[in-house]
Amino acid sequence: MSGIVIPLIATEDEMADANFDTCLAFVLAAEGGYVDDPRDPGGATNLGITLRVLSEWRHTAVTKQEVRDLTKAEAGAIYRARYWNTTRCGELPSGVDLMEFDSAVNLGPGRAAKMLQAAVGTEQDGSVGPKTVAAALAGNPTAIVAAIAKDRGDFYHSLPTFDHFGAGWMARLSRAKALADSLIAAHSGIAGTGGGPLPPLVATPVGTGPR
Known about the structure:
The chain is mainly alpha-helical. Helices cover about 60% and strands about 0% of the residues. The model is unreliable at about 1-15 and about 190-205 (pLDDT under 50).
């Protein structure tokens, strides 16, 4: 053996899925810690995970204290299985994965899938399949992100709870788009196209989202 190390070249899918940690960090920061707002239909929530979702994940009823004690590791596993994988974010272009993942968390995977499908021109059946993934890979990621962001903002404005939660939803959307554009720029190797410095990843009271 010559001792020469041949570097491994990551595939497009591996590079996109490698963004999961970055996307998860954004979502956890946006969702914040434990809240139990009576005006929020999600009820007791920690790291964005509601009591109902945690009960479904563990296959048993959980208490508010168990929601409060939820770890970031378990929250991350839930997010990967129920949102990231469900909407096939690991197969999407860098930047589009962040916008789709955050939309799935905030709006629900079905609505997020339809928004992606509308942006790439495939059938809006609420399930991301091979045709939607292929269309996303063939499209302009900046345009796809912009289209999803517009659709998402329009949806927020249509909700009766916008007066209470709208400012938080729109602030989160602005941060998500900024990070998505930055990821697109980094992936393409084009400096200066990421929209400037990213807004700080701080939690804003937004409820559990309109999902």
